[in-house]
Each structure stands twice: as structure tokens, then as C-alpha cells.
């Protein structure tokens, strides 16, 4: 995959995220739609109240799953989690789930291999993104890779490449935290019906993502990703 294709995919991913946030803002702005969503949230909270620990465990497991595969997002569960446990607990549980998902995807790539990873996210994604990093990629570039690439990809790719796990885990923890905070606040604002705030935050995320892409382009043009052999 060429760098041009990589940038195109990243921009498309940001657009998709922006569209999803905008849809959430539209739902929050619609009294009818928001009332329906609020009723579902209250019902879900009632079920969780009957089995609080099981509810937390299921939320962490679903968050973990969302970090490993593209077809599911734990963001849709965050309003329920915020309403049930509050922002702080929801943030910790979501961050834990995403970290466990990243660790699991890394272990799949490292120990089960490329073929098994390809069954989960597709060979094309692995081949394309593997051409952008290596086992000797600098930590700063792994940070950018982890920050702007869809979350289900870096763990598998870096695991297959046998990248140093401690560096990967540090990059994962650092880059996921801002997204966790953003998603949790969006969830709270959705519950409160603050549609304008949701849309503004969505635009901020889009601008931030574009900034990261531009900065990464400059870094790529200034230096090679891999540390040269001595």
C-alpha cells in the first residue's frame, strides 16, 4: 500500500467517525429520537442494577471486542454505562476494555500468526499497514500509528512483526486515553441532550485527526521510520 493510499484510508476513517458523531448529535437534537434513546438507556440501567458486577464484566468484554474487530463499536454502549456508573467508572472500564483488546490482538498476531489475524480483520489490511511499519520502527512513529489508524489494526500488525511488547503497550495506553475521555464525555452529553456540544466535539476530533495526519506526513518526509543498522 502506498503512502497516498494510507493517507486516503485515514482520511476516510476520520470522515466516518465524524459522520457517526454528527448522527449522534442529530439524535440528541431530536426530542422524539432522544426520548426513545433515553427510554432504552433507563431500561438498560434497570437491568444492569440487578446484576451490577456482571454488567461491568460484559461492558469490559464488549469494549475489548470492539478494539479487536471493526464491525462493532463500544461507543454505542457508553451512554448506558455513564448513566449506570458515572463518568469516572465508565472511563476506567472502557479504557481497560480497549487495553485488553489491544493486548489480545497483539497476542493473536504474535502467537497465532498472520493467517489467524487475517481471518479477523482481513489480509489486505494487514499487508497494507505492515508495509508502513517494522519491528524496528521508532516509538514516536508507533504512537502516531496507534493514534490515527483504526484501533483493530495496530495490535495485529505489530504482533505479527514481533514489535517490542512493552513499547506497544505504552503506545496503546497513551493513545487510547484521549479517545476514552472523548467518548465518555460524548456519552454524557448525549444523555443530557447537549447536541451542539456533541457536534462541536466531533469537529474538534476531525481537526485533530487531520493535524496528526499532516504531522505524520512531515515526519515521514524528514526521516526513515526504521532505526538504521549500526
Please supply descriptive tags for the structure shown above.
10 helices; mainly alpha; 81% helix; 230 residues
Order of helices and strands: HHHHHHHHHH
Low-confidence spans:
none
Shape: globular
Largest sheet: none
Question: Helix amount, in percent?
Answer: over 70%
Brief digest:
The chain has about 230 residues and is mainly alpha-helical. It contains 10 helices and no strands.
Could you characterize what this model shows?
With 230 residues, the protein is an all-alpha fold. The chain has one domain. It contains ten helices and no strands. It has helices at residues 3-29, 31-50, 52-66, 78-85, 87-121, 123-130, 139-148, 154-160, 165-192, 195-222. Helix 4 (78-85) packs antiparallel against helix 5. The longest helix is centred in the middle third of the chain and has 35 residues, at 87-121.
Topology:
Elements: H1 3-29, H2 31-50, H3 52-66, H4 78-85, H5 87-121, H6 123-130, H7 139-148, H8 154-160, H9 165-192, H10 195-222
Amino acid at each position: 500500500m502506498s503512502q497516498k493510499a494510507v493517507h486516503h484510508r485515514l482520511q476516510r476513517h476520520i470522515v466516518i467517525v465524524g459522520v457517526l458523531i454528527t448522527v449522534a448529535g442529530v439524535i440528541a437534537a431530536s426530542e422524539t429520537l432522544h426520548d426513545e434513546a433515553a427510554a432504552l438507556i433507563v431500561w438498560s440501567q434497570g437491568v444492569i442494577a440487578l446484576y451490577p458486577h456482571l454488567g461491568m464484566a460484559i461492558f469490559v468484554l464488549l469494549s475489548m471486542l470492539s478494539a479487536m474487530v471493526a464491525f462493532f463499536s463500544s461507543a454505542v454502549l457508553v451512554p448506558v454505562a455513564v448513566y449506570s456508573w458515572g463518568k469516572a467508572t465508565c472511563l476506567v472500564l472502557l479504557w481497560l476494555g480497549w487495553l485488553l483488546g489491544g493486548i489480545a490482538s497483539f497476542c493473536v498476531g504474535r502467537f497465532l500468526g498472520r493467517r489467524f489475524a487475517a481471518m479477523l480483520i482481513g489480509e489486505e489490511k494487514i499487508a497494507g499497514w505492515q508495509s508502513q511499519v517494522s519491528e524496528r520502527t521508532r516509538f514516536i512513529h508507533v504512537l502516531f500509528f496507534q493514534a490515527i489508524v483504526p484501533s483493530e489494526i495496530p495490535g495485529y500488525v505489530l504482533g505479527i512483526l514481533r514489535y517490542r511488547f512493552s513499547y506497544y503497550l505504552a503506545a496503546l495506553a497513551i493513545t487510547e486515553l484521549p479517545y476514552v475521555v472523548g467518548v465518555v464525555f460524548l456519552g454524557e452529553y448525549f444523555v443530557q441532550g447537549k447536541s451542539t456540544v456533541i457536534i462541536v466535539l466531533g469537529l474538534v476530533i476531525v481537526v485533530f485527526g487531520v493535524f496528526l495526519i499532516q504531522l505524520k506526513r512531515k515526519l515521514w518526509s524528514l526521516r526513515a521510520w526504521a532505526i538504521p543498522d549500526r
